[in-house]
Amino acid sequence: MSKAAELAALIGSGQAQGNKNLIINGAMTIDERHDGSSFTVVNGNSRTGYIADRFRVNETSGAEFTGQTVADAPVGFEYSSKLTVTTADASLGSTEFHRVIQPIEGKNISNLGWGTSNAKTLTLTFYVKSSVTGQYYISVFNNAADRTLLKGYTIDSANTWEKKTITIIGDQSGTWLTTNAVGIHLMWSLGTGSSYQSSTLDAYQAGFYMAKSDQVNLAATNSSTWQLTCVQLEVGEVATAFEHEDVTTTLSKCQRYFYSHTNGDTKTICNANAYASNMVFGTIHFPTSMRTSSYALHYTSGTNYFRFYRAGANTDFDDWSGINERTEAGITIYKSSLSGFTAGHAGWLLSINASAHVYFDAEL
C-alpha cells in the first residue's frame, strides 16, 4: 500500500485525526486534587482515591496503599500514577479487590456502535511498571456491569517500564450507554477475590468480572509498587503513536468532571453583593461546562475560613448557607445569618485560610 493510501485509510478510520484517545489524561499531566502529594487509599476509598485526574483507585480489603502522581515515566513522558502498599493483605476474601479504573462517558463512545453488529474494535496501549512480576488483567465492562471482557498482560521484569498493547473487540450485544453516564469502564486489576474471577478471556460474557484466578495480588507484600502512564484507547486494530495534547486541552477535559476552584490561602472565589442586610450572594463561573448540573459542591470549613470584602471593610465567616442556583456552566452560592450590610453593596468573596478549599465534583 502506498503512503497516500495508508494515510487515506487512517483518516477514514479516524486514527490520523486529533482527539483520537478515548482516555482523558493518559499521560497523567493533570493532578488537581493532590498536585503530586501522596494520600492514603483505604477500604472503600472514593474521592481521595483519584490519583491523576480521571484515574480512580478502589480497594476493598485489609490492605492500604499510598497513591500519588510522580515524576517517573518512560522516555518522552514526564509523569505516572503510582501506588505503594503500606499495609499488606496476602489473602483476599471472595469479594475483596484492588483496582485502578477510568470510566469513559457515554457521549464519547457514541461512534463505536457497541451493542450492535457494527461494533468497532479498539486498541489499548499503556506503560506499566511494578516491583511484582507476573500475570495481570484489564477488564472492560458496561454501566450496568452485566457485560465484561477480560484481557491479560504480563509484567516480565521488576521495576522496569514495559509497554503493553491489547486489542479490545467491540461488543455486539448488551447495553453500552451513549448518554452523559458511564459508557465504558476500563479497569486494571491489582488483586481480585474469587467472586469476580472468570476463566473466560477475549470474549464478552454476561456478568461482572475483573480477572482470572492467577491475577497477581499486589497487596500480598508490603512496599510493593505499581505505576501506570501513557494510556491510549483508540479506534482500530493498529496502535498509533501516543497523542500528546497541549496541557490546556487536557485540563479542560478533566474539568468537565472535577474542578478545583480555590485551593487555600487568600484567593478570590468570586465577585459578590449584599442582597440584604444579612445576606451575601456570589456566582462562580466554571472554565468549562461540567458533565451534569448535579455535581457536588465541596468546601472545607473552619473558623473564619471565608471573607466578604467590600469598601474597605470585611466580614469573616465559617461556611456557606447553601446554593441558590446551579447549571453546568456555573453556580450561585449564598451566606445568610450575617449582619451590617447595605443591600446592593458590591465586593468579593475570598478564601483566607490554607485549608479553605472549594471544588466541584461531577465524576462518573
Give your account of this protein's structure:
A hairpin with a 5-residue loop joins strand 7 (134-141) and strand 8 (147-155). The protein is mainly beta and 364 residues long. It has a seven-stranded antiparallel beta sheet, with no helix packed on it. Strands 1-3-4-12-6-9 form a six-stranded antiparallel beta sheet, with no helix packed on it. A six-stranded antiparallel beta sheet has the order 2-5-10-7-8-11, with no helix packed on it. The protein has two domains: 3-255, Galactose-binding domain-like (Jelly Rolls); 259-361, no CATH class. The chain has two helices and 22 strands. It has helices at 3-13, 247-255, and strands at 39-41, 56-60, 64-70, 80-87, 97-105, 122-130, 134-141, 147-155, 162-168, 182-192, 205-206, 225-235, 258-263, 266-276, 279-285, 296-299, 306-310, 313-317, 322-326, 330-335, 346-352, 357-361.
